[in-house]
UniProtKB/TrEMBL annotation:
<protein>
    <recommendedName>
        <fullName>Lipoprotein</fullName>
    </recommendedName>
</protein>
Amino acid sequence: MLVACGGSRDDFIGARVLDVCKASWPVCSEYAGCILGPESYSEGRFPGRGQVLVRVPEASTIKVSFYLEEVTAAGEETAITVHEEGCRARQRKASTGRAALDQMEKFGVFTQQADVTGVGDHLVEFDSDMQARYVVKVDVTPLRIQ
């Protein structure tokens, strides 16, 4: 159904190292499978959900990016939830399955982002009923330099 456009998987990953996300990092009374940041990425399959920990040194934008492969169905919804440190607040960003694929076809990647003000560990959750393989990475950009 979809062939990735706009860049290759290798371009998307760059110099990052695979994290299989099989650990148990405590965050927000839950456990994230890994810590994602500028040095790492993970991969998996939709439909499904994932939880990662993102460390933020100051008020920042957390951008979650997916490179999609082997898409066989768009699904109804793909959502990313970014929690403030300690889970005192959260932002949920949802897209229809078609909108997520349209973004992927146009830009080569599907992204969602949220601004956070707290310093420390942030839980980032994602879930989708799409049928696809994905590569996920997280970028953190301080708000003061945007």
